[in-house]
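[09:14] KT: can someone run the structure on this one? pasting the chain below
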Amino acid sequence: MNFRFLHAADIHLDSPLHGLDSADGAPVERIRNATRRALGNLVDLALAEDVAFVLIAGDVYDGNWPDYRTGIFFGQQMARLTRAGKPVIVIRGNHDAESKMTRSLRLPEGVRVLDHGKPETVPLPGFGVVVHGQSFATRDVTDNLVRGYPPRVEGLLNIGVLHTGLDQVGGPHARYAPCTRSELAALQYDYWALGHIHAGEVVSRDPWIVFPGNLQGRHVNEAGAKGATLVSVADGRVVDVGHRVLDAFRWTRASLDLTGCTAEDAAMQAASAVLAEALATADGRPLAVRVTLTGATALHGGLIDLHEKLRAEARMLSEALWIEGVELRTRPATDPALAARGDALGALARRVVALAEAPADDLLGDWPAQLLSRLPPNALPADHAIHHPAQVLAQARDLLLAGLAEE
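[09:31] RB: done, structure tokens below
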């Protein structure tokens, strides 16, 4: 029998999108409803492709709902599928674990939420398929759930559904239902429908081990196209796995090298070209951009107010383009001949360079981190990284040399 099914995960329904809260003219409603529109796109795709069934590998929600509207919307979308005769099998992930969800609604008949106590096996006899999966009971499931999954059922297409950090050893996704690729392969299932990692990835093709990524990017660290995985089956075998883009709002990063740039007009002209290129990659979707300015430029000291000008430039390019943030990683343009001079300025410049090249920890210790730790809560953006002392010294060197050059 030939058929297709959809594998989605990490919907995070009604999760807020971060980064444009204070942007003048930002599309607040469009941002707020992006996860709902992405879920609607998923259902539209399932109906258009006439899939046999839909698998959701955890994190349907972003935690407990403030009211019932979130659950009602999910139920309405699932009803569109079940009315068309398309069953849905769901597991709960860490964000919608049994212990976190104090509200609940009865889902339409045809939607099966798998148990959290032990793995369940659900046959889909009309397609020669059997699905094995287990929900999270609590947010912090650090046990290896795979060890409890049953052996394959011979003569059927076996699919495992699991919410897991897999074998990652660090980062935000680690230690949730950890397991290894070899443990998944040992069960001899034909396809592993995974969730939890928000970057889509085909981990393995033999057997198929797939993360579809999240359905909708929620901030600039979840940049790029987001969606779900469409799986084709022929004669009892998975023959094709393809990503389908379903997001309703797009995030991206763009870099602008200002090396040698001496005039602000030239910088803005270059910025306009970079923003236009980013907009062209959004496939007609609204787009939020984090711009990073780099390079040695005479404009370095005057870039602090460039954020508002970039916002204005973006609005002129398109009503669907916003600046999420601007990172200043430029450095002053300095004269390399300065340190070669034989006068006092040359001697001072050589001393500045020598200090900057000395072991940073010997000179600065941990005082940069100590100073930053004294800032009020939320004074820095969530993705701010404390600079290493060597970076602080390099920035100080560039500023001092630029000042000497002006003198």
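[09:33] KT: thanks! The chain has a mean pLDDT of 85.
[09:34] RB: yep, looked fine to me
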